[in-house]
């Protein structure tokens, strides 16, 4: 039991690989947020594309 405890303690204190874990956690949080708000994000993107299309059409009709 002491050997397992020491192994876990050594693994916990080992800082090698922590950056990878931190990056993976950040990516996971971003993915969860994107999934939670996908409807709002898609609506926002569609409104931006619609606005851009309207502006292009204004220039085409004037030219």
From TrEMBL:
UniProt keyword terms in alphabetical order: Membrane, Transmembrane, Transmembrane helix
Transmembrane segments: 20-37
Span of domain Putative Flagellin Flp1-like: 10-50
Keyword Transmembrane helix applies: yes
Name listed for the protein in its UniProt record: Putative Flagellin Flp1-like domain-containing protein
Tree of life domain: Bacteria
A Pfam match: Flp1_like
